[in-house]
Queue: 3 jobs
Job 1
Amino acid sequence: MAGIDVGKAFLDIALHPAPPHGSPAKPGSKPGSKPWQVANTVEGWDALAAQLTAAGVTCVGLEASGGYERGVADALRARGLEVRLHQPLQVKAFAEMHLRRAKNDRLDARLIAAFTALRAEYQDARAAPDPRLRAFADRLVFIDQAIEDASRAKLRLEHQLEPRLRRQLEADARRAGDRAARELARLAAELRAQPDLAERLDLLLSIPGLGEKTALRLVVQMPELGRLSREQAASLAGLAPFDHDSGKHAGERHIAGGRARVRTALYTAALPASYRWNPALVALRTRLQARGKTHKQALIACARKLLIYANTVLARGTPWRPATEPA
């Protein structure tokens, strides 16, 4: 096993278990017992892949690092190495479990290597992500940022009285909104050029209340849908209510974690769907509010139900049908 602490400019690498002797590896040499460093560049990735292969490493663990880990992960996978991507929270919890307080890049690399070895004992490796979906996901983030730019410009407009500056802010909001609309249409067209993704998109669009933007997000950012249980899907999207009980105390259930952009999209879609477009969700919201649930609690439940509908139609491979419709 090996662990890599990813930085913008450099990668720090450690083996687990470390060899009994040696020194930091140089490009083209066999790694030794101490962590070593390579540049986070194409040349560095190639040198690292050769070093790890020479050391007999078959599995490499990395932390998600805002995208700086993508290049090295792809390069190592291309060389036949198994790559496991960990969430920073997982590695941090592992360090706290071992009462580790000291922190630097080389210590982090050793910690990631040890955590990778432990996790490999009880959890199978996940398949490499679909490169098409990664590119689409980056585009979705760009669209989100354009929408956020438009919202910020509109907010500033509310507090700006000078006509000249108001015209500038109005133009900024209009440009950002137009940019988001154009990119969303282009993304949908390019995704539909992929037959398997187009089929998934059409299945999701058959669900009343699930618009194109939300359906695109589910196709791109939740590719696991259709292969999960309803509980797993809700947890992955951050829409699962977690218990908070101890002894005789029964605390409030709260949602937490998961994929924030997916959760936000589903919550946003649940509002119009549960008031107008989806009769099943309208009935669910009405029933929950009659039982004393708050507006927000009812909408979260509707968002979770919308996700369950999506998971179901993808699992069955058939369009959504109301429960009252005869089979």
Job 2
Amino acid sequence: MSDGHTPSGGSARLNTGVAHNARVWNYWIGGKDNYEVDQQVGEHVAGMFPIIRDIARADRDFLGRAVSFLAGERGVRQYLDIGTGLPTADNTHEIAQRIAPDSRIVYVDNDPIVLVHARTLLTGTHEGVTAYIDADVHDPQAIVERAADTLDFTQPVAVMMLGILNFVLDADKAREIVRRVMAAVPSGSFLVLTHPTFDDELGGAGQIPAMEFWNENATPPITARSGADIAGFLDGLELLEPGLVSCGQWRAAPGAAVVVPQYGAVAVKP
């Protein structure tokens, strides 16, 4: 998700000469919606930090488990997915509406490639609603105001922030974004979060040079954080078991858990 002003026409922002996160991430998980420059940067990063593809897959699998849990066990019927990225298989609305066809999902992103694909591919059930808003994570007020056209903020909402706060370089600003969005949703709502880390216990040291290369050769800039800093985004919320862990370990099936340097958590607003 890029930052800065969002013009009305997505094509004005489309730059295929510079690698972009949404497209490189799509390349890492085996998608086709990317350009040669994305493939080149993606391969270079993967050469520096070979488990990056494992991180991408683990993050995607975490999304599936978290939405399945919230829709199936917690009865959540509304989702605000901020920084959705390029559509692939089993997007948030597909998982939620498979369990509960009346689920309502609002996707938020600010990348023109995502915008084009979302309007074409992110279609849901007749019983539910699948909407897309072109907005920036740095403007939480606009996100909440526009999402209210589709979501009922008197009823619980699952706020999805997977791999998005790492593009908010200032930690205080990132905490404020989370605080403002979660302040808009009622008690019983959830925050679903993933974030890359440089913590050694999760094997994150290799992220630092890879991210330095990324920030010199691609957009938008990115940062990893410690587990303690990431836990700060969850202040005021109640962590669900198993807490803040590698996203590959969160409620994974026995024998299927993988440890990647990307934290994942689901927390409920009391």
Job 3
Amino acid sequence: MSAPWLVADVGGTNARFALVDGPDGVPSQVRSLPTRDYPGLAEAAAAYLEDTGARPSAACLAVAGPVAGGTYHLTNAGWPKGTPEAVRAHLGLPHLDVINDFEALSLALPRLTADDLIVIGERAPTGDAPLAVVGPGTGLGVAGLVPAPCGWVPVPGEGGQVDVPAATDREIEVTRLLRAEKGAVPAEYLLSGAGLARIHRYLAALDGERGEELTAKQICERRDDPRCDEALRMFCALLGSLAGNVALTFGARGGVYLGGGILPRIVDVLRGSAFRDRFEGKPPVEDYVRGIPTALIVHSGPALVGAAVRLAQSLPDAPPRREPA
């Protein structure tokens, strides 16, 4: 290739940029830029290119929000809606794709190896049936990946905005407090960084206490505190119910992958929680769901890999992927 490709994973808090040399390239010159420091996507990408001096031939920018009708909108970044064409023109690139971040993450799933995953349950995901990915971070992302004669087809959406899958009396009470505060109960309001902090705060209120206002990071670090431990376990249980719902919706018999930045910090809690019990507890189809594997993604930049896959699909002259020997 005469020039690299620019790829990005842009979330509500940080925008990660990198360069890749084709569909099998390993992301290099990775930089993470705070989204709050820039007025929009084009300006953040331009800052990265200026910093690295790179002159890419094409770009794929994966953003945490809906991409439809010729526009994109980052749900949690505070940036205005934009169009891929405006970003392409601003950067002076001959080709630019803007896709949903979980669409990019789903495209990376078949590329992940055993070293990129921690199995949650008894079996690792396989690549011979539909796949799905769920990821709590600044927000909550959901996507599917379906095999087809032409290759893997991503199915992005806004699954993080479905209702909270509360099941226990305690969870129902937490959801009641959420509805009173927010007027609605999207799963993202509890299954995200801010959501974990809300769970902790609501549990204190249910116990008749004001409670210390903690961030998600602080809650993850204070697992020996009973309320932090309860908040984390409720978080994992709710996530298990949601992931099971996603598995049923997509028919994801190949596996459900877990992404986002929170879960790798609490692997031991996740494994010891009710996650799998809630994932499988779907009467009358428990046997069907029990056979679906789950795994936590620990790869450092899977959406960047998926963005390169998308460019390989959309560029007419892109070099073919090298299949392993």
